[in-house]
Write a structure and sequence with these properties.
The chain is an alpha+beta fold. The chain has 2 domains: 151 residues, 2-Layer Sandwich (Glycoprotein, Type 4 Pilin), CATH 3.30.700.20; 77 residues, Hypothetical protein ph0010, domain 2 (Dna Ligase, domain 1, 2-Layer Sandwich), CATH 3.30.1490. It has 8 helices and 7 strands. The protein has a 7-stranded antiparallel beta sheet with strand order 5-4-6-3-1-2-7. The chain starts with a helix and ends with a strand.
């Protein structure tokens, strides 16, 4: 199974429902179990800026997992303030379903643009730490493998001098992901087409009747497993 538009649509549905304080719509896709991440970005003048990203390396049923992490990444990523309704029209949602986990031979045994990496290491105080980057991160940042590893060590809390000996002691697991992403405008178009297909009596038509959705454009224009759980993208 690969990530699809229906998974991103559901995450937007969940976010809109949270803003409106109403019951979430029921998802319309198969409830398989996957490790997953939900990412929210802000699109501004064609540039994407991370707004929240949290996931789980345990395999979770998609219905509950996507709902939980759509909310967590939007409102509970400690690196950012909670997403607000004023940002809704500028949001992009990405869903990553993680697959093909493998133990690496060493810290260089992975491919940029193909593998995500999870590392385990011991910090300066002999405490065990972990950190991860999704498959797209190193390529987006223009990093070499060594640069990605060094950045991930810092992300995980390593504050000492990074030497090749430190890198060699890392335990690394690599994985791949199936990713899909849509913008808020694409979400609205999908909702409109869904309403046309299923009729006005469906619960999904509530989205188009929503006062919050009707006013969101106006609002925005007035302002310029092991320890794999709840891991965050940089």
């Amino acid at each position: 199974m690969v990530a699809g538009i229906e998974h991103c649509i559901y995450c937007f549905d969940v976010l809109v429902s949270e803003f409106e304080g109403r019951k979430h719509l029921e998802p319309e896709f198969e409830d398989m179990a996957f490790p997953l991440f939900v990412t929210w970005n802000i699109i501004n003048h064609g540039h994407s800026r991370l707004r929240g990203c949290i996931g789980n390396f345990d395999a979770l049923p998609l219905h509950t997992g996507l709902k939980e992490y759509a909310i967590n990444s939007a409102f509970h990523d400690r690196r950012f303030s909670p997403i607000t309704i004023r940002e809704l029209a500028h949001l992009e949602c990405a869903v990553s379903l993680l697959t093909d986990f493998e133990d690496a031979e060493d810290y260089l045994d992975w491919e940029i643009g193909v593998h995500g990496i999870w590392i385990e290491f011991t910090d300066d105080h002999n405490r065990r730490k972990t950190a991860t980057y999704l498959p797209e991160i190193a390529e987006e940042q223009g990093w070499s493998k060594v640069e990605a590893i060094d950045s991930l060590l810092r992300k995980g809390g390593f504050t000492g001098r990074i030497t090749d000996r430190v890198r060699q002691r890392i335990i690394l697991r690599r994985y791949q992901s199936a990713k899909y992403q849509i913008t808020y405008d694409e979400y609205l178009e999908y909702v409109k087409s869904r309403k046309g297909l299923i009729g006005n009596n469906s619960d999904s038509s509530v989205l188009l009747k929503s006062p919050m959705l009707a006013n969101v454009a106006k609002i925005t224009t007035t302002t310029t497993s092991t320890d794999f759980r709840k891991l965050k993208r940089p």
